[in-house]
Amino acid sequence: MMKLPDSFSNIRGRETFARSQVLQRSWPVVLDLCVAGIGLACFYGVVVIARYWFGHPEPEIVISQSPRALPQYAFYSVVRIGLAYMLSLVFAIGYGYIAAYSKRVEPLMIAGLDILQSIPVLSFLPGVMLAMVALFPTRQIGVEMGAIVLIFTGQVWNMAFSFYSSIKSIPRELSEAANIYKFSRLQKLIQLELPYAAIGLVWNSMVSVAGGWFFLMACEMFVLATRDFRLPGLGSYLQTAAGTGNYAAITWGLLTMIAIIVATDQLVWRPVIAWSDKFKFEQVESSSRVRSPLLHLLQQSRGLQSLRQHTIVPFGESLYRRLAEERTVGTPTKITKVRGEEAKTGIASTLLRGLIILVAAGVVLYAAWQALTLLRQVHGSEFATILKGAMATFLRVNISLILAAAWTIPAGVAIGFHPRLARIAQPIAQIAASVPATALFPVILLALIRIGGSMNIGSIALMLLGTQWYILFNVIAGAMAIPSDLKEVATLFRFTTIQKWKTVILPGIFPFLITGMVTASGGAWNASIIAEYFRLKNQTLQTVGLGAVISAATDSGQFQILLLATIVMAIMVVTINRLVWRPLYRLAETRYKLGG
Amino acid sequence: MQPAIIRAERVEKYYAQPSENRIQVISPTDLSITAGEIVALLGPSGSGKSTLLRMLTGLSTPSAGEVYWHEKPIATAEVNVSIVFQSFALFPWLTVLENVEAPLKARGMDAAERRKHGMKILDTVGLDGFQAAYPKELSGGMRQRVGFARALVVEPEVLFMDEPFSALDVLTAENLRSELLELWQNKTIPTQSIFIVTHNIEEAVQLADRIIVLGRNPGHVRTDFRVAIPHPRDRKATAFTQLVDYIYKVLTQPDAQPPALPQTSTGKTVRDQRQMHYQMLPHARPGGIAGLLELVLDHNGKDDIYRLADDLAFQIDDLLPIVDAAQLLGFLTVTEGDAAITPTGAEYANSEILRQKELFRTAAVENVLLLRQIVRAIESKSDRSVPEEFFHDMLDEQFSEDETLRQLETAINWGRYAELFDFDASRRRFIQSEKLHHDADASSTAEIDA
């Protein structure tokens, strides 16, 4: 669950996949059979999911603790993540595209992104769940949709922002070339915008999906007022196992989790990264690149090629032809349309637009007013609790940040400076980082209770677990980016250790460190909702904090408190971003930028 | 006279400013492109060459005036033009053939036909066998060939080129230029007219049937004449060098009427320069100015700018700002394309670093309004510091945002060098420079600066 610097993945690529050459010698038939096998497996998966979703309503789902149930549970969880991701991808591309090309709504949409990114996802949970269950009252699908929409809201924003900023940074001459050769919007999207944005989207997708696991683990099983929502899946399995103290089941669950993470990395991300390599916007070919046997298999398969030749290619051709015809037909009408007519349609469309804006504003105002009236039910004492909680969570977030920085900076610099160490440490750190902290949380709490620790320590531990990786991987990247001549200068003039850290290392990693801390800080606030209030073995463990207030309000269905606490949290996150992180970021961009 | 393919009528470009002022990039200009000619557009940086090109292609809409394509407004006409870009602007994720086929795809041509056309044009530009390569596997020259192939595959009536050879090394550029000329003269390509933007004077004289020279502040046509030298043109021939020299003269005398052409010309009158408050600082570094002065001194204090550029292997875009700066500071005078060093200039070139700084300081305060104002503003403030914003806002009235930033950068650069003031980059403030005791550590300073 971290942004991996490019160089980092390259190193891994060379180490792990020297064997990938073996595949080049096998017969095309074998490749085709493999592809057919994958296709059949996908089909069966769809059938299973459909049967489960549209089957009888299952009012009381019992989560089995048998390891035999695990493959099925894991499968359900993966499908949830996959669907939410697809939804995010489509939405992110649409959102980014509109924001980049519509001057009128651009500032609004970008400000929206900023705020939506700061709202803690989990406080949406009750609202989304209730709405979805109301929409599909008798079927499991309502709760399913709720979970998917929730994960979606957690992972879509950074992808949307990545796509938007990619479009915005397309070199001017490239888009001029597309315009002068009269590319249609579709052609421009496929041949220019999507390829240009591909690499950013891929890296952000990896971050998003990792974040998705974090929330899925939390929202597969939760209580809302008197209703107990459960989804069969890996998260609920782990929670149930931890709740009953079944250590064997916990071990099985965690192993499955790690297996899934590793498999996703090998079967999805590695091929995708290898494939996206051709979208690198660079003048010279880089020497090291990620290889993927699976991608090789897909690209060499004759069956897939001929399938593509008979479906996508003709469809695309006819589409382009139609678009070209439309344009040539379109031009003369544009000429005949004299100015008067243009003006008339102009007025009509302005009126329509005005009407739409008016209605939208009305709806928004009404809803906002309703929400505010809800807030009036909050008592003074509750208000005090929220403020006290906010302070406590603020302290906790910062303690976890300081703790994370304290160990990750020396460790990251050591890894970054020693390639030998990096080769060993990085794959391990990556696997460790990929396991969602929420999956580990029940286990950690069990251990804490046994040694008599408090929930206060537990919540800091969860925040640390979830966010330290952002800092670690950024510090590694930063340490690697320090030019070796700077390090040599330090050695040459015999800098003392302190002087070396103050003049070379810390300024060198500063921009990376800030990037890591910003992400970690946001993540820690979000994690507080799970971390400060947890049900285990039929008892509720909690501590004072804003996250605990939100979770407790969810549990008891007190929406006014939930709303107020969420607003307070969003305001705090946004304020901290504006007042602390943004100035630091600017400083990093101007003063501590290495090179150019 | 043939009917024009593209005709610009009183086109101009300006950016409106919040205050009534507007920044004029190009003043009203008439221009037409007719069949059978190669037109070269020359001009110093900031004269709006590229902007003019983009208005003529319909990529950019003029702020006022109209561009016509076969006498129809260009916005509504079915225009058939191509552009070859300086950066090549190839799609790195498409193969050579896919890049060349992309414009045909946009026109809805079917796959087989597209391939046929694509392969044929690749053959024409000498790229057989490279169709499956990706652009990043090719050298710069080969990449620009792909750029040409992509531009020519749609059989454009007018082929626009925006400094197409300036990203290439000299030999590659020469090779590509002559091949292009060959394609054009043998009528291998159905293109009616070629319009090339360049800052390389020799390139213009070598290729063009007609040369248009732009002046700046704001961009305007200074002169527009036909080149009567027959092809192939010999760079060493007198007619060739005379014409190159003539264009240098035009370019180095921004304020004068263009001098009389050695051949028959259709020189146009110069439009009014806008009355400016601040002079535009040429973006030259003090080190560059000193270097140029030393070179002129080596040439006995006076030489042809053309020859100086040749000596330095500089393009005019690189040399002109330095000449302008030296002129502005009173170190150099330019008449008829000849640069002559002034007594101060000679002293400057011969002095050691601290004296140079002193001379530069005196000249800068005397001649550069902006620097004078910055120094005065710092002196009048009790905390001896002025925010950059203050000058930014004043310059903003007169220059575009980008130009304002460049002006400030140059001012800071000059001011720091002359020790007129210092600039605190983190607070974005001009501050009084810390006066060192020059006598005490003159030697060490000089060593470091040298």
UniProtKB/TrEMBL annotation, chain A:
GO terms for biological process: transmembrane transport. It is a multi-pass membrane protein. PROSITE patterns: ABC_TM1. InterPro entries: MetI-like, MetI-like_sf. The chain crosses the membrane at residues 29-54, 74-98, 110-135, 194-225, 245-263, 354-375, 395-417, 429-451, 457-482, 503-525, 561-581. The keyword Transmembrane helix applies. It is found in: Cell membrane. Keywords: Membrane, Transmembrane, Transmembrane helix, Transport. Its main location: membrane. The keyword Transport applies. Residues 74-273, 390-580 form the ABC transmembrane type-1 domain. GO terms for cellular component: plasma membrane. It comes from the Bacteria. PANTHER family: BINDING-PROTEIN-DEPENDENT TRANSPORT SYSTEMS INNER MEMBRANE COMPONENT (PTHR42744). Belongs to the binding-protein-dependent transport system permease family. This is NitT/TauT family transport system permease protein. It comes from Tunturiibacter lichenicola.
Automatic annotation (TrEMBL), chain B:
PROSITE patterns: ABC_TRANSPORTER_1 (PS00211), ABC_TRANSPORTER_2 (PS50893). Residues 6-241 form the ABC transporter domain. Keywords: ATP-binding, Nucleotide-binding, Transport. The keyword rRNA-binding does not apply. Pfam families: AAA_assoc_C, ABC_tran. Gene3D superfamilies: P-loop containing nucleotide triphosphate hydrolases. InterPro entries: AAA+_ATPase, AAA-associated_dom_C, ABC_transporter-like_ATP-bd, ABC_transporter-like_CS, ABC_transporter_ATP-bind, P-loop_NTPase. SMART domains: AAA (SM00382). GO terms for molecular function: ATP binding; ATP hydrolysis activity. The keyword Nucleotidyltransferase does not apply. This is NitT/TauT family transport system ATP-binding protein. The lineage of its organism: Bacteria, Pseudomonadati, Acidobacteriota, Terriglobia, Terriglobales.
